[in-house]
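Fold this sequence, please.
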Amino acid sequence: MAFSSTQENTKYARLCRLLVDVGGTVLCDTFDSIHPPASLHVVLSSPSVLPTLQSLREKRVLSLLHWERLFPFVASTVSSANFDATLLMVLLRNICGLSPPVSTGNWDQLPPDSDNSTEANIVRIKCYRDEVFAHATEASVDVPTFNALWQKISHVVLALGSGTNYSAIYKTAVNRLATAEWMDPAAEAHYIKLLSDWKKDDDSLKEMVEELKGMLIELVTDSHLKFYFFEKDTISLTLKRS
């Protein structure tokens, strides 16, 4: 598909690249700082982690592709470098000893500026991604919008990255991307698609979780009704006999 680029398109693509390239790398490095790559395969199969992952798979929070990335044929070859942003978010929330930000108690709510915790910055990356994706229909942003989003995203990326061994590299990457005046149209389309795929993966995950919740509620309700009518019939039968 041909992609016609304008200055506004380029600014939107740069935001997408900042989130996908730099933001995704920061999420990966944050995960690695908690579970070092050399022992990751051991951690994933450990009694304290494997049941959690199996439960997430049963609930369809983890897709088959995610499962294959976590447990390749040769276990020792597992690498967080092969994890997409959606999978990294799930892992950070569930097997890294992190809890929802204290300021909100919610993994899906934007924390206040006063909360500078690792958990809060993880949530911010996702929330700012959604803000950028809100412009996906036009795939463009004006200068004031670009500047505001760039400031927020770059700040949270650098804040989260400060807890890893690569903070200087992140600063360089952000600065280079900030001053780049031109992007190849094919590259623009590529990063726009990657951000869109990330958002769609998250939306699909939410839909599956909500569907599962609905099924569980229906199952529990049905069980309660069956128990109610069983008790009612039992009482009726007892009264007749007496």
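The first helix runs from residue 7 to 34. The CA atoms of residues 189 and 239 lie 74 Å apart.
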